Amino acid sequence: MKQIKVTLTRSLIGRPKDQRATVKALGLGKMHSSALKNDTPAIRGMIRKVEHLLTVEENIESQDKEVNS
Fold this sequence. Notes:
By secondary structure, this protein is an alpha+beta fold. The chain has helices spanning about 15-25, 40-50, 60-69, and strands at about 5-10, 35-40, 55-60.
């Protein structure tokens, strides 16, 4: 399955509780922390909700593993 890398690039100070909870559910805590997540509609929806706080990259390594398999 494709994976995406999500990185918290903006601070959560002054953000609403629902945005803080969404970032926490994505597995991000401090600034510049990253997490690899499966590319599912649920994760995409969470990312869309807080996309102004995140940087999202497709994980090239997981694509290479799929090609080699």
